[in-house]
Amino acid sequence: MATSAELSPEPAGSDEGPLLDVRDLHVEFRTREGTAKAVNGVNYSVDAGETLAVLGESGSGKSVTAQAIMGILDSPPGFVTAGQVLFQGQNLLTLGAEERRKVRGARMAMIFQDALSALNPVLSVGEQLGEMFTVHRGMSRKDARAKAIELMERVRIPAARERVRQYPHQFSGGMRQRVMIAMAMALEPELIIADEPTTALDVTVQAQVMDLLAELQREYNMGLILITHDLGVVADVADKIAVMYAGRIVETSPVHDIYAAPAHPYTRGLLESIPRVDQKGQELYAIKGLPPNLLHIPPGCAFNPRCPMAQPVCRTDVPPLYQVSSTRASACHFWKECLGESADNT
Amino acid sequence: MSDSTLEPILSVRNLVKHFPLTQGILFKKQIGAVKAVDGISFDLYPGETLGIVGESGCGKSTVAKLLMNLEQATSGEVFYKGQDITRLSGRALKAVRRNIQMVFQDPYTSLNPRMTVGDIIGEPFDIHPEVAPKGDRRKRVQELLDVVGLNPEYLNRYPHQFSGGQRQRIGIARGLALNPEVIICDEPVSALDVSVQAQVVNLMEKLQDEFGLSYIFIAHDLSIVRHISDRVGVMYLGKMAEIGTDAEIYDHPTHPYTQALLSAVPVPDPEAREHRERIILTGDVPSPANPPSGCRFRTRCWKAQERCSQEVPLLAVPSVFAGQDTPAAHESACHFAAEKDVVHAA
């Protein structure tokens, strides 16, 4: 794993200073059972107004990467061991705790999956929203409350003036997620990281929330990192995708290309394994086996024990991110074959 | 599959479950009721899969419990081969339950952590010793493990030693232990990762063919339900909105709620995103303790008129389609039923 530093090329499309540029990020968790290598050399970038979807299953390191970017990693046991997080050219990892706090919330904000546990149950929604302004902007409580109402109207919570006094448990799941979005939007950050923002919601509510998020993003020209496992949501909103597996990016691509012809067998397996609402399919393709234990990541390509295309070289050599085109990259020794087969199938 | 010459194995007629809302501690006084299930009828035929979809709170899990007689129905009947199981108790109920088994959503909490896998799968034999005589049980449990694709040597392991997907296989093995005819699956794959979901869905389909099982498959994921079901029922706020074959419901929905629900499901195809019509519903699902008069969907429906608030629409083939040989002629509880394809790009 130590070799990955020199293997990773620049992510595609990063020539003119992206909003956020993550370079060769490594995160590990030191536990009693050993060191779990959660993130092993992740590179990705987001421009203003752009939506990057980070796709992966549980344990792929997609959320840990986000926590490291935000600076909210539980440490210990989690440690960033290498890499850079360049936010408008400035490496956040070298900042002190105080400076970091000024960035967090004001310039980049996060939306969490479970709004009920992310919100404080004993403070009213208005107080929690207002806190953004009293803490970061030094406003009076009265002004902060007015701002809170404005925000709630902005995310279309009905009867905001009355509901500002209510507590999180008095809101429905979709409304709570709107409060989370309002809180993230409060200080008009340049970047929002949304970690599975709609996973806990019903589909009709999910559609409402994703619509709102996309609208706000357009209006404020924010960069958005959408962390998800849902290939349908990605296809709906993303501009580009980074697919993660066992703490690495296995494929990055603009959204249209990857669905048309994936260049990594893992991506292809994921796309083939999901049933679709618009087709009655045959038997589902199932990726055999299980995602690896991060304490014992297989040598070579981490996906090799589950890969239908694996060759001896896959068990020994970690594949670098090969440049597939000017905007695509795949960490598979046999990306050409994979791309060829994918194209045949479509 | 829904061959009308066959006798249904399960027949549900006007099933109702109201949970009383009470006030006071010593002298409880009923002040209302949560109408979780409010008059539902459907049939399940041998060897078929009936999918039941709906958003949280629509009563789909309560239906599952009523079918098992785990909850006492307020009124209505559930006929298993002509016998009303809502009125059974004691030995007669026990005999029926042998033939109707359940697989639960959460494979983490539905397996006792202190029991070995062998004991978990073998426990049904303690209650129904006639199925497997004492000396035979170990062998039978190993057979079951093999059937669901687990190593028969794992008999003495504990649930925590298995992954989510493997645990769900254990849950399925337990459901199969008594050779039931009907298995009620309540969100059986929603806690699993995408790549593992496909494995479990394929397993369930294989077992259905092998043992001639009938499934009631309850889920909120419309894509999975389409994949596995022969017929699908859509529930909203304790009532069935629409029921029909998978193609009738997904390709020719006539109920506005079904149309909204389907249009909100993201399709994993970025090409479709500009071309699909999205129906974004406003507001949240009303409380089942105080459902709207008339049609329950009218508060969120764009077609609602005066008649909808006064007259409860019955679940029947809409009169506009009656007698016609069209896929739109299936049961739909809407006064203004009209066909609309929302799943496929225009």
TrEMBL record, chain A:
<comment type="similarity">
    <text>Belongs to the ABC transporter superfamily.</text>
</comment>
<keyword id="KW-0067">ATP-binding</keyword>
<dbReference type="InterPro" id="IPR013563">
    <property type="entry name" value="Oligopep_ABC_C"/>
</dbReference>
<dbReference type="InterPro" id="IPR017871">
    <property type="entry name" value="ABC_transporter-like_CS"/>
</dbReference>
<dbReference type="Pfam" id="PF00005">
    <property type="entry name" value="ABC_tran"/>
</dbReference>
<keyword id="KW-0813">Transport</keyword>
<dbReference type="GO" id="GO:0005524">
    <property type="term" value="F:ATP binding"/>
</dbReference>
<dbReference type="Pfam" id="PF08352">
    <property type="entry name" value="oligo_HPY"/>
</dbReference>
<keyword id="KW-0547">Nucleotide-binding</keyword>
<keyword id="KW-0472">Membrane</keyword>
<dbReference type="InterPro" id="IPR003439">
    <property type="entry name" value="ABC_transporter-like_ATP-bd"/>
</dbReference>
<dbReference type="InterPro" id="IPR050388">
    <property type="entry name" value="ABC_Ni/Peptide_Import"/>
</dbReference>
<protein>
    <submittedName>
        <fullName>ABC transporter ATP-binding protein</fullName>
    </submittedName>
</protein>
<keyword id="KW-1003">Cell membrane</keyword>
<dbReference type="InterPro" id="IPR027417">
    <property type="entry name" value="P-loop_NTPase"/>
</dbReference>
<dbReference type="InterPro" id="IPR003593">
    <property type="entry name" value="AAA+_ATPase"/>
</dbReference>
<feature type="domain" description="ABC transporter">
    <location>
        <begin position="22"/>
        <end position="271"/>
    </location>
</feature>
UniProtKB/TrEMBL annotation, chain B:
<dbReference type="InterPro" id="IPR050319">
    <property type="entry name" value="ABC_transp_ATP-bind"/>
</dbReference>
<dbReference type="InterPro" id="IPR003593">
    <property type="entry name" value="AAA+_ATPase"/>
</dbReference>
<dbReference type="InterPro" id="IPR013563">
    <property type="entry name" value="Oligopep_ABC_C"/>
</dbReference>
<comment type="similarity">
    <text>Belongs to the ABC transporter superfamily.</text>
</comment>
<keyword id="KW-0067">ATP-binding</keyword>
<dbReference type="InterPro" id="IPR027417">
    <property type="entry name" value="P-loop_NTPase"/>
</dbReference>
<keyword id="KW-0547">Nucleotide-binding</keyword>
<dbReference type="InterPro" id="IPR017871">
    <property type="entry name" value="ABC_transporter-like_CS"/>
</dbReference>
<dbReference type="GO" id="GO:0005524">
    <property type="term" value="F:ATP binding"/>
</dbReference>
<dbReference type="InterPro" id="IPR003439">
    <property type="entry name" value="ABC_transporter-like_ATP-bd"/>
</dbReference>
<protein>
    <submittedName>
        <fullName>Dipeptide ABC transporter ATP-binding protein</fullName>
    </submittedName>
</protein>
<keyword id="KW-0813">Transport</keyword>
<dbReference type="Pfam" id="PF00005">
    <property type="entry name" value="ABC_tran"/>
</dbReference>
<dbReference type="Pfam" id="PF08352">
    <property type="entry name" value="oligo_HPY"/>
</dbReference>
<feature type="domain" description="ABC transporter">
    <location>
        <begin position="10"/>
        <end position="262"/>
    </location>
</feature>
